[in-house]
Amino acid sequence: MINDELIIKMTEFNAGDPKRIQHFIKVYEFAHVIGVKEQLEEPLLRILDMAAIMHDIGIRPSEEKYGRCDGKLQEQEGPAYAKEMLAGFPEVSEDETKRICYLIAHHHTYDNVDGLDYRILLEADFLVNAMEDNLDKDAIITFRDKVFMTKTGLHLINTMFGLESL
Fold first, then answer.
1. What is the DSSP letter of 110?
2. How confident is the model over 54-110, as pLDDT tens digits?
3. What pLDDT band is residue 165 in, cutting at 50, 70 and 90?
4. Residue 150 backbone zone (phi > 0: left; psi -120 to 50: alpha; other: beta)
5. Which secondary-structure segment (H or E) carries 12?
6. At CA 143, angle to CA 98 and CA 23, rounded to 5?
């Protein structure tokens, strides 16, 4: 299955950084679960899965190039590396690659969200980042109220962090 092979490639890409590797695995799993529960059609779920696995591919290149890896640099640097990696998978179409690269180029952009795959990627990444960054409850609630829109994502964030439902 392509996701398994892509996980191996991303693990190799992030060799020596188990925290980063475990981050993308968690984001992938949350994105997949939300996508399935929200009844994302198979072609879009396939794109979401690959984008979730690769969403932070721009971190290492940003660190190497600029000495930092803020969200905008990740979005700027990630697509070229994703496109190069996906070129090794002939079963991934050009249209799929374009959408995956678009999602990677916007995974820290929270306005003008143009698709359920995009929305779910934002939600899944935040579910993991909120825990890894030990965000306080107020910050989690603020982000939830501005970004989370899927029924499954809202259920997961409220349940994980013991929040009141909207």
1. -
2. 999 999 998 999 998 888 889 899 999 999 999 999 999 999 999 999 999 999 999
3. low
4. beta
5. helix 2-13
6. 55
Q: CA-CA distance, 14 to 66, in Å (whole number)?
A: 17
- Residues comprising the chain, all counted: 166
With a CB cutoff of 8 Å and minimum separation 6, the contacts of 78 are: 54, 55, 56, 57, 58, 59, 61, 101, 104, 105
- pTM, rounded to two decimals: 0.95
The predicted-structure confidence for 104-138, as pLDDT tens digits, reads as follows 999 999 999 999 999 999 999 999 999 999 999 99
Q: Distance between CA 4 and CA 163 in Å, rounded? A: 34
One DSSP character per residue, 59-106 reads HHHHHHHHS---HHHHHHHHHHHHHHHHTT-TTS-HHHHHHHHHHHTT
* Contact call for residues 54 and 48 (beta carbons, < 8 A): no
